[in-house]
Amino acid sequence: MQLSREELLRAYRQMKTIREFEERLHVEITTGEIAGFTHLYAGQEAVAVGVCENLNDSDYIISTHRGHGHCIAKGCDVKGMMKEIYGRKDGLCGGKGGSMHIADVSKGMLGANGIVGGGPPIALGAAMAAKIDGTGAVSVAFGGDGSCNQGTVFEAMNMAVVLQSPIIFVFENNGYSEHTGADYAVGSGDIAGRAAGFGMPAACGDGSDFFEVHAMTREAVERARDGGGPTTLEFKTTRFFGHFEGDPQRYRAKDEVKKHRETMDALKIFRDKVTKAKLLTKKAMDEIDAEVLKLIDEAVEEARAAPPPTPDDLLTDVYISYEGGIQ
Amino acid sequence: MAVKTYREALNEALHLEFERDENVVILGEDVSGGAGGTSGEREASGGIFGVSAGLLPRFGEARVIDTPISESNIVGAANGLALAGKRPIAELMFADFIGVSFDQIINQAAKFRYMFGGRTRCPVVIRTTYGTGMNAAAQHSQALYPVITHIPGIKVAIPSNPADAKGLLITAIRDDDPVMFFEHKALYGKKGEVPEGEYLVPFGKANILAEGDDVTIVAIGRMVHFAEKAMKTLAKDGIGVELIDPRTTSPLDEEAILDSVEKTGRLVVVDEANPRCSVARDIAAIVADKAFSSLRAPIKCVTAPHTPVPFARELEFAYTPSPDKIAAAAKATVEFAA
Ligand SMILES: Cc1ncc(C[n+]2csc(CCOP(=O)(O)OP(=O)(O)O)c2C)c(N)n1
Ligand SMILES: [Mg+2]
């Protein structure tokens, strides 16, 4: 399937936006202005964008603690996200969620999630609803290599096969769960192979190559929309930063990130491919780079200047209605 | 006595018990860290908060077990280890992950002894971290010990200072019953004097940190430090505080609390957990029941509100009980006129 020039430009813009968002946060976090745990997605852009470019607003995704990339790829407002990470009142979740809980259900983005393995059963439920209503929508559960060892994930995979639900389990194998290697914690080392054992199509691809991710996901999404049930996709990828900001990464070879930045940079790989194939010009992408940088600058400036929530906000949003009020 | 941090005190307790009893094992995510990584550094973290540092190099992989992310199985396997004669310490990185492992805690560990007619023991310790102070938001900040305190068959310890951290953890490891051990994330760097060598703090024995005549303040975990600050403010107003840290909520030292309220006639309970069906309200109910005639003012509970833990700094601050709120509540009990 050949992507149009417009689609390619959009995919590049999305990946570049994620990259700059994360590179900038990596710097801004050192100022101490941003509270809480922040897990950066830089390095994995081709997965979020390669998957989500196959989806529309009526499709669902659920994300993880490392959620910024999925949010951007599914169309969450970048400035609203930045404000949320800064804990501002008009952040995407009113400053109540923060980096680990960004969501925009109106965009089919069912949330970043602080509980590893919390997402897949929820994504399954959304897929079941789509099937009941016959909307043709699909659901994607993003997870890491670490999440594939959680019982909830096994349960969701089996039930998806039993019910033939329109769901795609996407495992981003970046080699680590916190400070532990996937080669240690994933028993067989083969996440896709394990998924196949549940009785669904499963494949492993190069998570640094937007085109490969996009094509593999397209096939899975088409199958799901046509009533063909679930698929698992494992993508080999890398994270350019620590598990969370401030992680000394003692489990990682000194030059690993440097090497991966040279050989597994999704943006470089994309640029090389499209310029060699004469699909996009360097100039067109440079223009996007400049626009993205400006957007991120503005997002940070506006977030820094935005007002925080007030103590009254503490007691709102717990319930939709509650007899007697919250004490 | 040496001055140590809460983290160092816990770490020392682990080292001492590992050395003393070869049946002691620990299992959890990144309890040593570095398994499989590319650096070749096997102990890459020693626990995400550093509490289990140095165990792996000394005691080896058979006893210091890095697990996949599988909380249900971490607690479940610890239960099985315990039934098979080991003294396992299961680590849940955050107390919120009780959610993932709840069955193994409340239906398994807590029930064996009773269900099996007293013919077995399950000496498991589930260590976990709780509390606000790191802006870790709704799924990484909860104080869930009331939920566990509610369950018969499992004990609950909540150390507020380094000495208790050491003494309670050693007691927990040697206890033949299941124990859930709540460490406050914001206290790991807190320093205090810690007795050398073997040091045990008994369960069900409150610590009376200050004696006073006007109001009893019962505070739990990190709230003990906030109550100490409030106590200084109250002293300026001439209000004498009796400050009690129960140290374990199951068993609970009712006697120490009742004795104190009989003297002061006033009670403030400070707890950063949510208020409904909480330890704070439980203590209030016990006192209302058993020391009613001594009370000279209504009991006050200073707790978090009935909301999840919010992310933004301003909101987390508003959520958490503060020394000011504690002092105001204590003052209100003293100024109360029937
Ligand atoms: C139930 C649960 N257990 C443990 C954690 C702590 N934790 C957060 S992220 C993480 C590692 C996740 O690894 P992986 O799934 O590979 O995702 P990655 O961080 O690599 O994106 C762990 C152990 C958690 N948040 N939730
Ligand atoms: Mg990973």
Core attributes:
heterodimer; A: 327 residues; alpha/beta; Rossmann fold; 12 helices; 44% helix; 9% strand; B: 338 residues; 7-stranded mixed sheet; binds thiamine diphosphate; binds magnesium ion
Describe the protein's architecture and organization.
The complex is a heterodimer of chains A (327) and B (338). Chain A is an alpha/beta fold and 327 residues long. Chain A has a single domain, classed as 3-Layer(aba) Sandwich (Rossmann fold), CATH 3.40.50. Chain A is built from 12 helices and 7 strands. Chain A has helices at residues 5-28, 45-52, 68-73, 78-85, 119-133, 151-163, 182-185, 191-196, 210-225, 256-263, 266-276, 282-305; strands at 60-62, 139-144, 167-173, 176-177, 180-181, 202-206, 231-236. In chain A, helix 1 packs antiparallel against helix 2, helix 4 (78-85) packs across helix 12 and helix 5 (119-133) packs parallel to helix 6. The longest helix of chain A is centred in the N-terminal third of the chain and has 24 residues, at 5-28. The N and C termini of chain A lie far apart (57 Å). In chain A, 56% of the residues are buried. The model of chain A has no long low-confidence stretch (mean pLDDT 97). Chain B has 338 residues and is α/β, with parallel strands linked by helices. Chain B folds into 2 domains: 2-194, Thiamin diphosphate (ThDP)-binding fold, Pyr/PP domains (Rossmann fold, 3-Layer(aba) Sandwich), CATH 3.40.50.970; 207-335, Rossmann fold (3-Layer(aba) Sandwich), CATH 3.40.50. In chain B, helix 10 links the parallel strand 13 and strand 14. The radius of gyration of chain B is 20 Å and the shape is globular. The mean pLDDT of chain B is 98. Chains A and B meet through strand 4, strand 5 and helix 7 of A and helix 3 and helix 11 of B. The structure holds thiamine diphosphate (TPP) and magnesium ion. Residues 144-146, 174, 176-177 of chain A line the site of magnesium ion (MG). Thiamine diphosphate sits between chains A (64-66, 114-117, 143-147, 174, 176-178, 243) and B (29, 69, 71, 93, 97, 100).
